[in-house]
Structure formats: structure tokens, C-alpha cells
Amino acid sequence: MQPEDVWGNRWRECTLAMAKRYMTVACEKQSLVCLAADRKTMSGLFELLEQVGPNIAALKTHVDLIDDWTADEWSRFCVAAERYNLLIFEDRKFADIGKISRSQMAGIYDIRSWSNIVTAHLISGPDIVDGLQAAWQDVGRQGGVLLLAQMSSRGNLLTSDYCESVVAKGVVSAGVLGFIGNGSRPEELAELRNRVGDGKMIWTPGVNLAIGDGEMGQRYGDPREAVLAGSDCIIVGSGIHRSDNPAAMAKQYAEASWNALLER
Ligand code: 5BU
Q1: In whole angstroms, what is the distance from residue 81 CA to residue 175 CA?
Q2: Whose CA is nearest to atom 8 of ligand 1?
């Protein structure tokens, strides 16, 4: 199936190269799953990647969770992820002023050199997007920023008014791939999609086939409902990596998300 037939207006209106790349990979894999690879060792990450690589479209990392991180092992891991045709998304949630965010993309982890996507809060103002984009340009790469418009955690402070301001600034920013929406609440997600229109992506954490409350304030909603409400990518962590059979679970999430996209 051609991406333009599957994605419709989203394909036509999301012009950022990274958006097109994601939508193409999702069609090739028949999966809208981004795995939240929240493992604490390099061997755990490699193991997970081998299990779920064929059934996911993107891999979300928290590089600073890894106890035995080394630059060499990490670049081996990124090469392995690319072999599975995955976009690499560092969920760093940058929040500082533009020039410091640019520098934070370098440093020991050198996020700019291997990430395709990063998350950012817009709390410090719109220049953060320019800072992050400048960091990718510093190493001759391109990437896309996902702005936090909503969060999945209970009691978060991203109010509806705040969300509206983030969307208003984000939709007109070329370096913005899209927004993080709350996958646990389809009605909030539908409201976000209304505000965003078709020109940007919405990616959603807080998704699990077992809906309800998770650990420490996390909340979960159903993958199909999230996609029907306007999510373009479901971010799933423990639903896959904590299960007894991560490969089989990744396949289930892939099918649920892909079928929901076709239904949408
Ligand atoms: P879980 O195991 O599916 O609950 O993992 C969710 C992941 O998504 C985890 O890596 C979080 O850092 C990430 N996340 C989230 O849960 N909620 C949010 O609002 C944002 C990110 Br932004």
C-alpha cells in the first residue's frame, strides 16, 4: 500500500522530511508502534531490539537510563536499530533556552549524532526548536522535534490553555515534527487533533492493551482508540518489554495500531 493512500491528508500536509520518513516506515512495517525501550543495560537493549525490531516503526530511548553505557556500544546499538529500518527517538524532554539546548544535544551522549527525533517542552519559548535544529545542522543531519502538548501522567500541569499555546506556536514551526498527546484519554486526544489539523503528527505515550492506572501516576488507554482519536504513533513501553513474550506483544500492538489507521 502506498503511504499517500493510507495516510491521506496527513501525508499531503505533513511536509517535514522526518514525517514522510516515519509514515513510509510505518507502511513498510504495517505498524504505528514506537517501542519505549526502557531497559537499563546495553545487553537488555540489544535483546529487546532483536525480539521486536521487525514489528515496530520507531525506537524511543532514554540514553541516560543505561548503567553500562559506552559510546562504542551505543553506536553499535544505533546501527542495529537502523538495520531494522527504525527511527531513533531520544525522549530527552529538553526545556532550556535555545543555545543551551543546542549544547545539550552534544556533550557526552552526543544526541544530535544519532537521534532522528527528540522531545522538548515549549516552556522556555519557541527558540528551543531553533536550538535543537541548529544542533542537528552542526553535524550535517536532519531531525524533527516533538513538542509536549499533553502528558499521560496523572496531575500533570499541561493545562488545556497551555496546550493551545504550544499548538499555536508549534504548527507554524518548520522544525516541529508534531506533538506529544495523551494516549490515555481519547477525548483529550481528539481535542488536540482538532487544534493541530493535518499538518503535524501526534505521538502518544500512555498506551497499553490493559487500560487503567499504571505505576507511579502513569495512565493507560487503548491503542485502537488512540489512533481513531488522531494519534499517528503509539508509544508503548512496559506493555511490550515487561511481557513474557515481547515479540508476540509487539506484533499485537502493531496489528491493533495498523488496523485502526486503516479504519480511520
Ligand atoms: P510505559 O512503560 O508504556 O508506561 O512507558 C511510557 C514511556 O513513555 C516512558 O519511556 C516515558 O518516559 C514516556 N512518556 C510517558 O509515559 N508519558 C508522557 O507524557 C511522555 C513520555 Br512526554
Answers
A1: 24
A2: 205
DSSP assignment of 38-69: --SSHHHHHHHHHHHGGG-SEEEE-GGG-TT-
Domain of 59? 3-263
In order along its 264 residues, the chain shows pLDDT tens digits of 799 999 999 999 999 999 999 999 999 999 999 999 999 999 999 999 999 999 999 999 999 999 999 999 999 999 999 999 999 999 999 999 999 999 999 999 999 999 999 999 999 999 999 999 999 999 999 999 999 999 999 999 999 999 999 999 999 999 999 999 999 999 999 999 999 999 999 999 999 999 999 999 999 999 999 999 999 999 999 999 999 999 999 999 999 999 999 999
Which cell goes with 215?
505505576
Active-site entry in 40, 60, 93, 251: 93
Q: How many domains does the chain have?
A: 1
Residue 251 annotated to the active site: no
Contacts for 124 with CB less than 8 Å, ≥ 6 apart: 95, 96, 97, 98
Q: Is the CB of 243 under 6 A from ligand 1?
A: no
Going by CA atoms, what residue is nearest to atom 22 of ligand 1?
151
Q: Does residue 34 line the site of ligand 1, with CB under 6 A?
A: no
Distance 62 CA to ligand 1 centre (A): 10
- CB contact at 8 A, 116 and 86: no
CATH of the domain at 102: 3.20.20.70
